């Protein structure tokens, strides 16, 4: 962006100079008047790397740095190809293959192309996790990712559409990939790419951009707490009639806020909440409206829970906090299958500028689970449960929040409950509870804790929860 | 600025000179080497769709419903003449396929025909159309023998000026059907657009049809000629035919739409013109 602005200024200066010359002595324009442009070649690898310079391969951290080579034996209608040897998962030099191909020096002008294309095949049928371009280990502003690309043992042409080519007037990130072995039981394989180039196919059409994966999301926004737009995709229909969806970076989009006194969006897709009221964020790519929108209802600044004190890590087992390392959790909105989900929220927790907070709404009964696909929690050595709760509604007599802990879920399960009475809670204020685990009557064993229930029987329906941890 | 205008002027001057030179070269060539796209120029039907509302009832009728077995092709749509499915607006005829539950069908669309209203033997029939896209989408601009009530399909003959599968947005199919060469045995040819597709802009689909020949063209490309020698049965095209335009959903030619097919889908017809020699 900077560069372009500079060039534009440059252009304007030259232009005004030329106009001045024109008016002063009736001369024609200088032939030198033109935009500064960058190399507009599309070729990346034909029989060898094309115009990338000598220092263009930058592997990802923890990937095998030697995965890429030029293969003179295997090639698609040529002498050589790009060869990628994906290592075994237990390879000490790196557990996967992945890297960016970045031009050494100035980038290319790719505005005349509509897709990155290449031929590819593999030593076995395999799914490559990610292919793309626009990743430069700088801002990666125009990164594009096509995920889960299935390669066969025959050469097949693949297309990665450019979400909006007009943005790529100087791009250094020509190609990137990331390939692992989760689908091959940890065993490595080889794949080849050839005739890698940006191309003007001319038959990529029916652009269908989306933000928030196409959903119209309405949520509460908080003053000063930015929201990052996610689920950004661009879908094209290719000449063969196939819909190809790529993940696109926010800088391909034009964002619009319906109320810039409430929320504004920058080119990185970050929504800044600057005033109270309601604002809807819409987006488009190259004047095609994106599916999905974000409506923020802003009434107040967010009041965060008190920050927990520093503790020796041996003295704490954290389920949900930013203060301590958390154990893995299966889910934040668990319900019994026959009953179905009734309580909303919590899945996922609100991300308030990196500070996660659970907001349960329509609450009557919900559980945080940590036993199913993750280890259960042995809190035998701990003696207290800490939890911060803020009730977002009026509290009536008889209202309550019952916390229940279950041990060894589904297998000689035991559990105990502790009830927080409504008079111990305060509307719109965080209240911290430090509950002795011995107060959870009936919880005789806490060596395999797996569920923490919040039960209100709908007496209290809207709460924030933060800083859930066991300690001693 | 001055310079720029001068340049444009000189280019404009140059163009006719080049064209002139080219035409001299053309006349110098053996005419057999020249592909002539069309020769009929006497305009006898010009449906330009310039009046908003329903298409001109003096020329266009409708097929309504599902026909028998989805118009013989297991098509999934219910044809209506509602404005939701067919209307003229902003200078184009819009035929729109919608996903909606209607009279027992999951989709609605429209089919226009000139039966008993405009029937002609021979001529140049062309339409300028922007096609829809997506799996299971099947638009067509085609003709049936006007004697079809007495002489059932395929005996009456069928000329498909344009058929297209929404899942193959670059491929046009032109065909004839007749006794002994119908349905899967039709005499057919595909034309594939290079670096372009049929759903992003208007294209002209046409035939020039005379005694014992039908020439198929798209835009300025003549891509097929069918004569009695090409058909594997009786030639049934030396008699009047009428025009049909429709947008089918599903059916044997395209297969059903899937979750990725976007609805509604609209076929935009800029004009239908018929010329005689």
UniProtKB/TrEMBL annotation, chain B:
Q: Which InterPro entries match?
A: Beta-glucanase-like (IPR000757), ConA-like_dom_sf (IPR013320), Glycosyl_Hydrlase_16 (IPR050546)
Extract one GO molecular function annotation from the record: hydrolase activity, hydrolyzing O-glycosyl compounds
Keyword annotations for this protein, in alphabetical order, are:
Hydrolase, Signal
Q: Where would one find the signal peptide in this protein?
A: 1-28
Q: Does the keyword Transferase apply?
A: no
Q: By its UniProt entry, which SUPFAM superfamilies does this protein fall under?
A: Concanavalin A-like lectins/glucanases (SSF49899)
Query: Which Pfam families does the UniProt record give?
Result: Glyco_hydro_16
Q: In its keyword annotation, does this UniProt entry include NAD?
A: no
Q: Which residues form the GH16 domain?
A: 49-277
GO terms classed as biological process: carbohydrate metabolic process
What is the similarity comment for this entry?
Belongs to the glycosyl hydrolase 16 family.
Q: What is this protein called?
A: Family 16 glycosylhydrolase
- Top-down, what is the taxonomic lineage of the species of origin? Bacteria, Pseudomonadati, Bacteroidota, Flavobacteriia, Flavobacteriales
